[in-house]
Write a structure and sequence with these properties.
- The chain is an all-alpha fold.
- It contains 16 helices and no strands.
- Helix 9 (about 160-175) runs antiparallel to helix 10, helix 11 (about 195-205) runs antiparallel to helix 12 (about 215-225) and helix 12 (about 215-225) runs antiparallel to helix 13.
- The longest helix has 18 residues, at about 85-105.
- The protein is globular.
């Protein structure tokens, strides 16, 4: 082997050992790594995501999103960790949320993460409703809609249903054209057996956005959950199902298994076990891991 060839081989080894990629094989940027880590989180690979986001932070320590997603991944790991590890993981997640906010004070995700930490953590490791309210106020300065949701979150934690309703009504009133705001109020009313109030909220939105498939799905969902306006709910769900093939690639989509689940719920509310079973089974055919459909089918069999 010639001297020049040996030197070239040694240079290649050094490049690999020191982490420098040769031309044509550039090192991944923080943004690239964040994309990979998010895909890992979506695939329920939280431990792998933590490692990937750690690399993103190392690649660019000043990237607020890298710290934000690392915090979220650590929090996901904490959710299934044993009780001895949870305090450590919780503190680590908080420190990353803190860093995300330090780098970008307008990071709503970072502040929402801190709000959740302050509400869920025991006081001995930093939990504080007062600090949660501070984060909610800061969120509202950046985004008033998210601020209303933060207030609802705190009121729910404090077991204050009147406060939850006040926050959701404020959101729906201030942002009547926001389906997210409408959904929040409708969900609250539905969960509190107030369907007669929930449907008018949806109707006001649909008066301007009659073809909004997500809003129509919520008509069906509200009917399925409450047992009210079943015919209208079924019609809405079937229209969403029929339009699924024609909507654009960038349009909001409802998972077809979720539509079949609610069609099954409506059939069950009517006492039609045959059609309910068929709908639940179709939901499971589409998504065999759909736990909600599995539970619904088991409950139907027990009747």
């Amino acid at each position: 082997m010639g001297l020049i060839h040996r030197f070239a081989c040694l240079a290649g080894v050094l490049l690999i050992a020191t982490g420098f990629a040769p031309a044509g094989g550039r090192a991944q940027s923080a943004d690239d790594l964040i994309k990979v880590g998010r895909a890992q989180l979506d695939s329920n690979r939280a431990d792998d995501a933590v490692k990937t986001f750690e690399k993103a932070v190392k690649a660019n320590p000043a990237n607020s999103d890298a710290h934000l997603w690392l915090a979220r991944a650590v929090g996901t790991v904490a959710g299934s960790a044993n009780v001895l590890r949870q305090p450590f993981l919780g503190k680590r997640a908080k420190s990353e949320f803190d860093k995300a906010v330090e780098l970008d004070p307008n990071s709503i995700g970072g502040r929402e993460g801190l709000l959740q930490f302050y509400l869920r953590a025991p006081s001995v490791i930093g939990g504080s409703v007062v600090k949660a309210r501070e984060q909610a106020a800061a969120i509202a300065k950046v985004n008033r809609l998210r601020g209303h949701f933060a207030d609802a979150n705190i009121a729910n934690h404090e077991k204050d249903p009147a406060g939850v309703e006040k926050a959701y009504r404020a959101a729906a009133t201030e942002f009547p054209d926001s389906l997210i705001a409408v959904q929040g109020l409708v969900n609250f009313l539905t969960n509190n057996n107030r369907a007669d109030e929930a449907f008018p909220v949806l109707d006001r939105y649909l008066a301007k956005q009659a073809d909004d498939c997500v809003a129509l799905f919520w008509v069906g969902r509200t009917a399925a959950v409450t047992g009210k306006q079943l015919d209208r709910g079924e019609q809405a769900l079937r229209s969403v199902l029929a339009s699924a093939a024609s909507v654009g690639a960038d349009a909001p989509r409802i998972a077809p298994e979720a539509i079949h689940l609610r069609l099954g719920d409506i059939a069950a509310k009517r006492g039609d076990k045959v059609r309910a079973r068929a709908s639940y089974e179709e939901a499971l055919r589409i998504n065999p891991r759909f736990e909600q459909a599995k539970r619904a089918l088991a409950a139907l069999a027990a009747l």
